[in-house]
Design goal:
Blueprint (H helix, E strand, L loop, with lengths): L1 H12 L7 H32 L16 H29 L7 E8 L2 E6 L4 E2 L8 E5 L4 E7 L4 E5 L4 E5 L5 E5 L5 E7 L12 E6 L1 H27 L12 H11 L25 E3 L5 E3 L2 H9 L23 H12 L2
The structure holds dinuclear copper ion (CUA).
């Protein structure tokens, strides 16, 4: 009875707001109702058998039961099939949730004790203002891929209405994707205990119509270009050349790529060098010196910067590349990766 009430309450209080809400709920409902039916079946049979096999006379003998092979085998096979149905169903949905579609809008999310920070591809950063948790904006119907990283300890990024949750782990990137389907404000929770203010580590996801999202970004971009222009004008006092747009994450990565002299060994146009070219490397299979291949994703590129000898590209000498462990900040690593993605 309490379980039923809880199920009903959750249905009412937790709206569907992403492309995954429906499929997650269907599997959940299936398991829930299966449990209800099994529970009732067991209780009813218990009552029926207690009455049916009640000893009515003092001298009545309880018959010895040998077992019944067809029933036992039947129950085992039946339960096995049920479990496999649940397994297949969950696996199918899981694979879909773990495979971001091509062309998804990417947002870099950083968790730290005790706040969330969001960075859009155009360079816009949404962070906490005073005591107010940050509000990041998403266009309705857009596939969104969040690339998550932690500056300190384990956190977990959780939006109940979207039915998505992902651990945020220091020292590596994790990701999740979804497409919000309903306009509104949704609370982002941290779902991994991370210290004193864990319960206040919140953010707000605001889902708006695509046109409103574009306006929200354009307004910021114009302001960013204007302030860059003003800075330039103040510095040079001469005729300023207006920037074409705000400095994106990839722009920062490009500047770092030059500043750290990466281009001394790595070409960006496919030309040979002391190190492998970075042209069109992201998202592709890379052949390694040990004969294996690896997909060049965010974590592969990160490891190549931190532990260059761990995964050496076939035909190259891994000892040449210096480690950047402790020399690049997390957001600089992210910027470099965003730049490499554009090549
Ligand atoms: Cu971050 Cu709990």
């Amino acid at each position: 009875m309490l379980g039923l009430l809880g199920w009903w309450f959750t249905k009412l209080s937790l709206p569907d707001a992403s492309n995954f809400s429906g499929s997650v709920d269907r599997l959940y409902d299936f398991i829930f109702w299966l449990s209800v039916v099994s529970f009732l079946g067991i209780v009813i049979m218990m009552v029926v058998f207690s009455v049916k096999y009640l000893r009515r006379r003092e001298d009545e003998e309880t018959p010895y039961i040998e077992g019944h092979t067809p029933t036992e085998v039947g129950i085992s096979i039946g339960l096995f099939v049920l479990v496999m149905i649940i397994f297949y169903w969950g696996w199918r949905d899981y694979v879909q949730m773990r495979t971001p579609p091509a062309g998804a809008m990417e947002i870099n999310v950083t968790g730290r004790q005790w706040e969330w920070e969001f960075q859009y591809q155009n360079g816009r950063v949404v962070a906490r203002e005073g005591q107010e948790p940050p509000t990041f904006v998403l266009p309705r119907g857009q596939n969104v891929k969040l690339i998550l990283q932690s500056k300190d300890v384990l956190h977990s990024f959780y939006i109940p209405e979207f039915r998505v949750k992902q651990d945020v782990v220091p020292g590596m990137y994790t990701f999740l994707w979804f497409a919000p389907t309903v306009v509104g404000d949704y609370t982002v929770y941290c779902a991994e205990f991370c210290g004193t203010d864990h319960s206040r580590m919140l953010a707000k996801a605001r889902v708006v119509e695509p046109a409103d999202y574009d306006a929200w970004q354009r307004k910021w971009e114009l302001a960013a270009v204007k302030s860059a222009w003003d800075r330039q004008a103040n510095a040079a006092a001469a005729k300023p050349t207006p920037a074409a747009g705000p400095e994106t994450i990839a722009d920062k990565g490009k500047a770092l790529f030059a500043a750290k002299a990466c281009s001394a060994c790595h070409s960006t146009d496919g030309a040979p060098g002391a190190g492998p070219t970075l042209k069109a490397v992201f998202g592709h299979e890379v052949a390694l010196a040990d004969g294996s291949t690896v997909k060049a994703d965010e974590n592969y590129l990160r490891q190549s910067l931190m532990e260059p000898a761990a995964q050496v590209v076939k035909g190259f000498n891994g000892g040449v590349m210096p480690t950047f462990q402790g020399q690049l900040k997390d957001d600089e690593v992210t910027a470099l990766i965003e730049y490499i993605k554009t090549l």
